[in-house]
## 1
Amino acid sequence: MIHAGRHFLQIPGPTNVPERILQAMNRSVIDHRGPEFAKLAKEVLENVKLVFRTRGPVVIYPASGSGGWEASIVNTLSPGDHVVMFETGHFSQLWRQVAERFGLQVNYLPGNWRSGANPRDLEVRLESDRQHQIKAVMVVHNETSTGATSSIADVRRVLNQAKHPALLMVDSISSLASIDYRHDEWEVDVTIAGSQKGLMLPPGLGMNAISERALAASKQAKIPRSYWNWQDMLQQPGRFLPVHSGHNPALWTARSADHAARGRVAQCISPAYPSRRSHTCGGESLGTGNCLREPQGILEFHDCGVHAAGPQRGRTAQGHSGEL
């Protein structure tokens, strides 16, 4: 296939990578155990907290968002644990599949793929869980397959009103740096993210932002883990992987993450989010017929061309070119 001019990708994700990020990656390979990468990794791990809006630790793996899913599960839960998940689209189904393969008992609250998670459904489910058997509530913030967005603040409110100790885990893979996300304020315990959507980086980095409650749970979790072990990562500050592991970090995706976290993405989330612009029936254009009942908007950031990943969301903000 021959492309005339610069190819401009228009799919839910991966998104287009800005020229400045591509240039940041155009460097010679460095020693991933040397002082240059140690400094780079430490800066990335600190600056990416601004994107999650957290003061807690963030770990970054050479992985996709699916790796972030696995890491969230194996570090906090044990085989046979009960969890609640919401059916909001294709990726909620895939996350459910991962959870079940690790031996979790998934209570999958049914949905129609046209709206986000219904907090009332969770409220009813928690009312019947007097013994607190449910160990986690797992929500996809923005469902890439439909564009439906869930209110994480409302899900947290239901948990708090019920005084339920379940962990709150959120898939922000297509929402982080695209729509308003507040890990600390919404009391999220584990946020899962990837590099290839709102961050506008190449695929290759899976992330977990972690609360103190999640760290405490990791000390009791019984699912075997090695590569995904948070404790190994956190014991080596400034590195994506333990010094003595046999794995290599994704060097130049890390370099690009440094530019994204310190540069335009950090600007996009401050000081405030402007209003949304609505869109309609994104699913129909893909032949799915899944029109959103309450269409979710595209969030235009201040001086930024970043959008939530989802159907018909592969365009830049008005007045901006494809290269940021």
## 2
Amino acid sequence: MQGYSAYIVKSSLQPIETTYKEFFKDVKAGGKLNRKPPRFHGKWTTPPSFPINYISAKVSGDSLFVQKIGWMKMAGNNPYPDGEFKSGRVKYECGDWYAYLTYEVQAEASLPHCIRGVGIDRNIADGRLAVLSDGTKHGGPDLERKIARRKRYQRKMARQVKGSNRRKVTKLRLQKAFQAERFARLNWAHHVSKEIASEYDVAYMEKLNIRGMTKSAKGTVEKPGRNVKGKSGLNRQILASAWGTLELCLDYKMEVCKVNPAYTSQTCRSCGHVDKKNRKGTDFKCTECGHADDADVNAASSWPSGMGLLDVEVATPAGHPATVDLGSVRNGEGWQEILCQLSYIIPHL
């Protein structure tokens, strides 16, 4: 234990303490909070990582200093050189060490005259993973070559002898192939969320239970599932569409409001009529008023327009600073604190 910083040891035990406190609080409440006991991760199945903060670590330019380790050169650039380093985590992934650093950055925040809202409908079809109520369609990243490389390594690894050195090399390359796909989807989500947040202030999205939607349909021996192969393919498509990643990227850039997804694809945004015959594939035509539109655009527009929340005018007394609660934005003070996640590659540790 003497080879580690005291802060690293203490911080590593804090999540365990918090989990136990929540679990025993649930026990006293009679199980109403639905808290589960802590699960310890295996040594050989969990990537090694440790937390750092401004006490146990320092950041100077492209270098990172950690107590009892020393200075390390980081690859990449820091887009927030004037930001103040607060905390982070050093993690080993795919043969490299990564530093996920959190900065505090001061930025100007001004209150717009009109709070603009937009509805977002998420799909799995190519070219329309995220469809906005204004008609904009965002397609997913081009992963064809990355997926082909990953599948090639999977086939190669399946033919190799377990425990051989060649298989270990192929396994590392396979991990890097998976990582390249994950980073490409994360990069896409950041670009799309930045474009949406630059034009709108509030996003309305369906409240989807992604974990439940991607649950296996295999069933049990007593009650076997049906159409298991088709459901597995759908699960892969949903997970590859990065629904949850896009939602997380939007959540800290703007205000995100969740709405009930029931009947959104069957509701006409013009008259509010609900009928399953309104939608046929990607086309929408209301059987009541005759309104015709793209099915995904209509679904993205149905709930914000129905609640009158697409645009909200903001009026403030003259000479008084306006304060509107949109997440963590504090316009009355004229600034906001932004926690920026940055990822660097540490070549040697």
## 3
Amino acid sequence: MLKTQLDRKEKESLCYLFEIIDEDRDSHIKLSDIIKVYKDKFGITVTEADFDRSEKHLNINRDGGITLTEFLLGACSKPSIITEGNVKQVFQYIDGNGNQQISKEELKGFIGIDDDERVASMLVEADVDSSGYLDYKEFCNLMYRLNRIV
């Protein structure tokens, strides 16, 4: 069975794993980070070829590294589970106060980033009507766009 969302414990574990891999603390995981951590911490030798395809699918914004958000999306999103029902369920989960809009604060809480500037830039990217919030339609468009990229 495929996961449609992460529970809090899974998210915390994945955030911790991200921090372990991101040794240089630049908020991006690069192939070199993964190779180094696998070798140094787990004693496993891997090559760039082992992770090249995954990195291409996970690095949604093509900025040269996998962000925490991309890492978490990769942990729970598969093309076959991006359905209207699942997107609605995730939207309702993120929309903590149930006002049919996802605020910057709700988005921050969901993705676990306490950087107002980074979260605001993510919000602006998907906020088509410039309301400062993501409504359901904007959220759906974002999820379907991410699905096509991944």
